[in-house]
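Quick note —
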Amino acid sequence: MTRHRAVVAGAGIGGLAAAVALHRRGWDITVCERATGPSAVGAGIVLAPNALRAFDAIGFDAARAAGHATPAAMDLRRPGGRLLSRADGAALAARYGRPPLAVHRTDLAAALADALPEGALRYGTAVTAVDGVGADGPPVVHTSAGTLTADVVIAADGIHSPVRRQHFPAHPGLRYSGETAWRTVLPADGPPVRAAAETWGRGERFGVVPLADGRVYLYATAVVPEGYRPADVRAELLRRYGTWHDPIPALLERIDPAAVLQHDLYDLAAPLPRFHQGRLAWLGDAAHAMTPNLGQGGGQAVEDAAVLAHLLDGADVPAALAAYSAARCARTDALRIRSRRAGRVAALTHPLAAAARDLAVRATPARASRRMMDDLFCGFALPD
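Predicted structure written out below.
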């Protein structure tokens, strides 16, 4: 039997998940990653119940492979410490079958990479263009190390996807959300953090998420001009958040500025018309870049990977990719828009508007808050 061959552009969570899923279905896989090796600096990722079900569909146990911490509660607070709401982990588990799991993104990527055959992942190999993607004949993948051919090409090449720009030249591209984000992971050499929490100020947010073996994932956002980069990261974070409630000041004192990532937050200005073209498919941020306000960027990429591999299993490739577009476009675009709107609410800067927001959050019963997440956490299913 002739084995199918896939080339995946990008070794992020979505690209690696797609590669693992197809490898386990008997495909020959090549993953091209522009970076020269695994990143030594990373951030955390919270895998919601829908993402965990998508990993289950791939046959990959994310919790066992990468280690996890399960927050007993996710608190939402004001900078002074006042509790606005609490998402109880036991209640989430009861409603959705499992609670969200927090993992280190680098650990998760390493576990996925380890599930691939030796030589399948090629670091230092950037995909620059993909030609000949029609139904007849194999596409040609142009890389910095030469050309490749495949039965299917999966563009998981990130938010700035060169392959997306090549094939959708008239698309408006990315839209700046108005916020930048700092992220880092603290080592397990300080007082333990027992619960995840996010704190909302006016135009500023700060998040704390415990990871496995005592490490702590920190993230912060602020409304700033696009491209804003402070000269002293530690001083900037202390200025913005150093007077907020405990344990934020003590955590900020522990950060290593060299290990802090800063990225402006973008999403697609408009949806792509489709997620495929002939034998080429887009996945994850390359297909539907969204802001992180719902914590669904990685989760939707894993959903993409599970659906794509399922549809490609024994099917005609162009027909399978058309079915993939039909299955994924509406859900991911609805979440892109929902995440954008959630970010606007969380980033309010006017005192009266922020006060009204906080009052509305406090007045919303926990059960109603959980119901509002049903379509998100229960919305993943493999198509027939």
